[in-house]
Design brief:
The structure holds two protein chains of two kinds. By secondary structure, chain A is of the alpha+beta class. Chain A has one domain: Jelly Rolls (Sandwich), CATH 2.60.120.10. Helix content of chain A is 37%, strand content 26%. The radius of gyration of chain A is 19 Å and the shape is globular. The longest helix of chain B has 59 residues. The chains are: A alpha+beta, B mainly alpha. At the A-B interface, strand 1, strand 2, strand 3, strand 8 and helix 3 of A face helix 3 and helix 6 of B.
Chain lengths: 171, 368
């Protein structure tokens, strides 16, 4: 980009700006434009190298991560330290949101597959927002509950399917 | 590899090493640090005071912010209100206080000589009973210390009045910026942590600052209430300087265990000299000990305002006071205890955090 001739006064377009990116995440669908600006101050931008651990199974969990760019591998370690890959997430995906409301150890591990930029939203910031701007916190929590409920429903259906298959196998 | 006990140990060691090396560099004799020290010298007290007042005023600003007033405007509104309040109370309080302080200074030699007279009588009586104490001249040492203290106060007061002027200018400016950007500064500093520990550092910084804010507000509120109660109780009697004594009792209450005792001494001394050992004297003693300390402090204020968990062991308090005194003189003695309390709060929060997540050494056996 030729900085001498380019329009340096044009502000970042909606697609490029952080607020525009966040608005597309399902957890934040209820937020209005003004809330998104406040959310930008709340979010932490972290840069990771390739093959860097984001968190390990058993670590204290206190927030969710949204992938801005790059890919993250979600896996579990069993007792013999063997890794079982669960998913590979890409830009726009998010993970770890179950610890946003209540503290719990992480149930899976996450590692970056390449140089990654992650956006972090943590529980302590959400608690501070609940005191300073309760409406914004309410909308975030609504979106969070929606996402978690959908995941719960999908998981319940899958478990019932598996249970049915198990009973069928036994007979 | 998991975050485990070794990581926490490393964290503590790093913090201790950082503080120790910071202190060592600060007190080393090289030219650069001499310049650094002289540049920083006048700033410590204003910075500390403005951080404390930012802590205190933060809830008010937040409640204004909740009503959709932008933060900067909210801070200005609050400053305006506080300044107006201070102006009105100051305009009649300052001449009144000035008179009282001057008359106290002129009266001091009288109280001093009375105290010496009492001590001399007491000394004669116990020297008669316990002959081996004959060579210990208590009156002489007390007289010398009292004279030194009076000279010190007389010399220091005009000097500290000048420092007070610069304090008045710096304090509002620092407080404004701490109120507006305090959280942003903390976040930027925590964001320096490496990715692996960032989440934990962020969590801990929030928990520790919340506990510390609660502690500071509770302590200061307690000091104000005790000072007001003592001043009110004393003004019922004929004693002079009741407001000053109340103020002194309130401020010294900030130091645990020793502070209240020290706060009682001037009051009881002045009462003994001015009013004699009579009904009013005993009322004053009862006021200081029973009402202020036992009922108000122990049963009402401390359980409500301050959790007992953050209390310091008396040995730690003495160590903090002595070390603070050696480093910074009288002011060091006063701020030494809150600083050690701050450390203790940080440790307690870290321990809570580990237990909440049942990290490997406190939790069950996960790799069975």
């Amino acid at each position: 980009m030729n900085s001498l001739w380019n329009n340096i006064f044009r502000s970042k377009t909606d697609e490029e700006s952080l607020a525009g990116f966040i608005a597309k995440v399902p957890v934040f669908t209820e937020l209005e434009k003004r809330d998104l600006n406040y959310l930008e101050t709340l979010i932490h931008v972290r840069n990771y190298h390739s093959q860097e651990t984001v968190f390990e199974q058993g670590d204290p969990g206190s927030g969710m991560y949204i992938i801005r760019s790059g890919h993250v591998v979600i896996f579990t370690r069993d007792n013999q330290d063997a890794e079982e890959e669960l998913a590979i997430l890409g830009p726009g995906d998010f993970f770890g949101e179950t610890t946003l409301a209540s503290p719990a150890p992480r149930t899976v591990s996450a590692r970056t597959a390449e140089g990654t930029e992650l956006l972090g939203l943590f529980r302590s910031d959400l608690l501070a927002t609940a005191i300073k701007h309760p409406e914004i916190a309410n909308r975030i929590l609504f979106g969070l509950t929606k996402v978690i409920s959908e995941r719960l429903q999908t998981a319940t259906l899958e478990i019932r399917g598996l249970q049915r298959k198990l009973t069928e196998q036994q007979h | 590899m998991n975050l485990n006990k070794a990581h926490f140990l490393l964290f503590y060691l790093t913090m201790t090493a950082a503080i120790a090396s910071g202190l060592a560099i600060f007190s080393s004799a090289s030219n650069i640090t001499v310049l650094l020290r002289s540049a920083v010298s006048g700033l410590f007290v204003p910075l500390l005071l403005s951080m404390v007042s930012a802590f205190l005023l933060d809830p008010l600003v937040s409640s204004l912010e909740k009503r959709h007033i932008p933060r900067t405007r909210a801070i200005f509104v609050m400053f305006f209100v506080v300044t107006a309040l201070l102006f009105f109370t100051g305009s009649w309080l300052i001449p009144y206080g000035q008179n009282m302080w001057n008359s106290l200074l002129t009266d001091f030699p009288r109280y001093n000589s009375q105290l010496i007279a009492y001590l001399r009588e007491a000394q004669l009586s116990w020297q008669a009973r316990l002959p081996f104490l004959e060579h210990y001249d208590l009156t002489g040492t007390v007289r010398n210390t009292a004279e030194q203290a009076l000279a010190f106060v007389l010399v220091e007061t005009p000097k500290s009045a000048l420092k007070l002027g610069s304090l008045m200018i710096l304090l509002p400016i620092f407080t404004f910026f701490f109120l507006r950007d305090g959280t942003t500064i903390m976040r930027r500093m925590v964001a320096l942590a490496p990715n692996r520990y960032f989440e934990m550092a962020h969590d801990l910084s929030f928990l520790v600052s919340r506990q510390m804010a609660h502690f500071i507000r509770g302590r200061i509120l307690e000091a104000i209430i005790i000072g007001a109660v003592v001043a009110a109780g004393l003004s019922v009697t004929d004693i002079r300087y009741a407001p000053l004594l109340g103020l002194f009792a309130g401020i010294t209450n900030l130091i645990p265990y020793i502070g209240p005792l020290v706060g009682m001494i001037p009051g009881i001394l002045i009462a003994a000299v001015d009013l004699g050992i009579g009904a009013q004297f005993w009322w004053i003693v009862i006021l200081y000990i029973l009402i202020a300390q036992v009922i108000l402090d122990n049963f009402i204020l401390i359980p409500v305002l301050i959790s007992r968990v953050a209390n310091l062991h008396p040995l730690l308090v003495i160590l903090a006071i002595v070390m603070g005194g050696k480093l910074y003189g009288v002011i060091g003695m006063i701020i030494g205890v809150p600083i050690v309390s701050a450390f203790k709060i940080a440790f307690i929060e870290v321990r809570h955090y580990r237990r909440a997540f049942s990290l490997p050494d406190t939790g069950g056996d996960r790799h069975a």
